[in-house]
Amino acid sequence: MKLQWAVLEDWLKKNNPRLWTDLNPPATDEKIRDFQHKVGISLPPDFITCLKRHDGQKCQAEWLFSGYEFLSINNILL
Questions:
Q1: What is the mean pLDDT of each run of 10 residues along the chain (78 residues)?
Q2: Between the CA of residue 23 and those of 36, 38, 39, 40, 42, what are the distances in Å?
Q3: pTM of the model
Q4: CA 27, 32, 34, 36 torsion: positive or negative?
Q5: C-alpha angle with apex 51: 46 to 55, nearest 5 degrees?
Q6: Coil, helix or strand for 58?
Q7: In the beta sheet, which residues pair with residue 65?
Q8: How much is the pLDDT for 32?
Q9: Where are the alpha helices (DSSP H) in 1-78?
Q10: Most buried among 15, 18, 38, 57, using CB within 10 Å?
Q11: What are phi and psi for residue 68, nearest 5 degrees?
């Protein structure tokens, strides 16, 4: 998962800097623990890895995944 993120980030920096800067900073371990507690499940390891890389996006650019928003923890909880 880390390699896939590195490749995607490199591509975004070169080809879509607006979307690159739209990505949020990483979610903290505490925020992820609180999220898991609120939803009552343990998140899959790959999803935790994603959240530790970027906690979703700010939604001030197009959506990251083929027309789908990369939701932050806060937006998932809405």
A1: 91 94 96 97 95 93 84 93
A2: 21, 24, 23, 26, 24
A3: 0.85
A4: positive
A5: 155
A6: coil
A7: 68
A8: 98
A9: 2-15, 17-22, 29-39, 45-53, 73-76
A10: 57
A11: -115, 135
Encoding tokens for residue 15? 């080809």
Token representation of residue 14: 């070169």
Residue type, 9: E
**Residue 10: both structure tokens together:** 């490199």
Tokens 């979703």 correspond to: 56
What distance in Å separates the CA atoms of residue 72 and residue 27, rounded to the nearest whole number? 9
| Residue 45 confidence (pLDDT) | 95
Q: Torsions phi, psi of 74, nearest 5?
A: -60, -40
pLDDT for 63? 86
Q: At which residue do the structure tokens 């700010």 appear?
A: 58
Using DSSP's 3-state secondary structure scheme, residue 53 falls into helix
Q: Is 8 exposed, middle or buried (0-12, 13-18, 19+ CB in 10 A)?
A: middle
